[in-house]
Amino acid sequence: MPGCIPGAWLSDYLGPRKTLGYVVAIQGLFGFLFAGVYGYINQPRYVGGMIASKTSATAVRGQYYGIAAAIGKIGAFAGNRVLLILYNKYADTDPTKAGQYPFFISSAMCLLSAALCLGFLPDIGQSVIDEEDAKFKSYLVANGFDISKMGVAPSESTENIVESGKVTEA
User: Fold this and answer.
1) Model-wide pTM > 0.70
2) What is the pLDDT of residues 103-161, one digit of tens each?
3) What is the rounded distance in angstroms from the CA atom of residue 52 to the CA atom of residue 68?
């Protein structure tokens, strides 16, 4: 919960893509830091869904979000199993390595995630949902789908037309 509050605030200024990328990169760096000092912090005294919901058209958002959530759960399950096996391999012989190696792997995955996010996700502004809806509607029209009963009546909404990747008023 504490990360959600500053993350929501920060995404208004940096945008969701940059916020996610930067925060995950920072998390990865902290993970490497913790792995490096694990021998010292292992003493008893020591104590990161919005992308999927904003990068798709309204008509497919639920399914898209569900797929993203399922992939995340599969990753969490696999990571939990792999890291436990790795921990158990070293738990009896070298407790420091047993604690360090999961941090190294998790931190590397954080930095990979940050690189993928910053390198391949689009910038997400406040109007991206409207743009995605317009692109989806244009796609349906171009492929012969009947959209006469889709959404609200044209008199109740603004009709958007996608031209060269931009949404413009009709």
Assistant:
1) no
2) 899 899 889 989 998 999 888 777 788 888 888 889 999 999 888 877 655 544 445 54
3) 7
Q: Mind spelling out the 3-state secondary structure of 86-125?
A: HHHHHCCCCHHHHHHHHHHHHHHHHHHHHHHHHHHCCCCC
**Which of 63, 50, 39 is closest to 125 using CA atoms?**
50
Distance CA 139, CA 143 (A): 6
Q: How many CB atoms lie within 10 A of CB 160?
A: 19
Q: Is the CB of residue 106 less than 8 Å from the CB of residue 83?
A: yes
Alpha helices in 121-170 (DSSP H): 128-142
**Segment holding 160, helix H or strand E:** strand 160-163
Closest CA to 161 of 144, 141, 58: 141
| Count of all residues that appear for the chain in the document | 170
pLDDT by residue (tens digit) across 55-81?
778 888 888 888 888 888 888 898 889
Q: CB neighbours of 19 closer than 8 A, spacing ≥ 6?
A: 7, 10, 11
